[in-house]
């Protein structure tokens, strides 16, 4: 069980990092803090629709991996 816990903890750290990075790569939708820091200006120079959809898919996949890892760590902790 110790090896499984270590693997899940490493996967949790990696997926947390990639989840944060993929969320920060998203284009601002207007309003709020993104406009305060110049997000509204770059709306014409933003990524294309295909790139944004691929980033959405990557973000969802990483979020699902993160959730499964959290559940797995919870189960390992409960069984130990």
From TrEMBL:
Membrane-crossing segments per the record: 6-26, 58-77
User: What InterPro entries does the database record attribute to this sequence?
Assistant: SecG
- Give UniProt keywords alphabetically: Cell membrane, Membrane, Protein transport, Translocation, Transmembrane, Transmembrane helix, Transport
Q: Name one Pfam family in it.
A: SecG
Q: Under the cellular component aspect of Gene Ontology, which terms does the record hold?
A: plasma membrane
Give the similarity note.
Belongs to the SecG family.
Q: What does this protein do?
A: Involved in protein export. Participates in an early event of protein translocation.
Q: What is this protein called?
A: Protein-export membrane protein SecG
What is the species of this protein? Actinomyces johnsonii F0542
């Amino acid at each position: 069980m110790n090896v499984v816990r270590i693997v899940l903890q490493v996967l949790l750290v990696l997926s947390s990092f990639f989840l944060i990075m993929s969320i920060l790569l998203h284009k601002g939708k207007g309003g709020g803090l993104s406009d305060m820091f110049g997000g509204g200006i770059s709306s014409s120079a933003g990524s294309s629709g295909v790139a944004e959809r691929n980033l959405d898919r990557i973000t969802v996949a990483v979020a699902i991996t993160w959730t499964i890892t959290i559940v797995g760590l919870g189960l390992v902790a409960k069984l130990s």
